[in-house]
Design a protein that fits this description.
CATH topology of the largest domain: DNA polymerase, domain 1
Helix content: 25-40%
Number of helices: 5
CATH class of the largest domain: Mainly Alpha
Largest sheet: 5 strands, mixed
Strand content: 15-25%
Order of helices and strands: EEHEEEHHHH
Bound molecules: FE2/S2 (inorganic) cluster
Shape: globular
CATH superfamily of the largest domain: [2Fe-2S]-binding domain
Number of domains: 2
CATH architecture of the largest domain: Orthogonal Bundle
Distance between the termini: 48 Å
Structural class: alpha+beta
Length: about 160
Amino acid sequence: MMRVNVTVNGRPQQADDVWEGESLLYVLRERLGLPGSKNACEQGECGSCTVRLDGVPVCSCLVAAGQAEGREVVTVEGLAQLAGRRTEDGELAPVQQAFIDAGAVQCGFCTPGLLVAADEMLERNPNPSDEDIREALSGNLCRCTGYEKIMDAVRLAAARQQEAV
Ligand code: FES
Ligand code: FES
């Protein structure tokens, strides 16, 4: 058993009695009350559990909680408040709004992971090609949409981001 200290969405958090081999995903969902990251495969294959670890998108089901010690995690719950973003309370991150507006959410199970991955790509690459988008989202499986609406949503978010500059 161990204690894990991790900053989640800008807030220092502590999880006690974490067992060896417990995943970061489990800690987020079951210990820290953040069920936004989904657990579908728990084998690193679907991307529904994607979070940012020190900025980099990872499958949180594959990260041992102990590996997150002292690091910064951003989950889908924190997207609207990411550093430098001036969203009001209750307002969505631009990428979230774009997913809704483009009709890219069906069952929604894949959505949190896609949002985290797409948001990270848009931060690095404000003007992505379709190829860039496909590559950034290649680890995120969606059984419902056939991906075209997801592509539309990310293109829309990129276009809006450009307009806002
Ligand atoms: S639950 Fe982590 S990749 Fe599927
Ligand atoms: S919307 Fe259902 S898996 Fe993507």
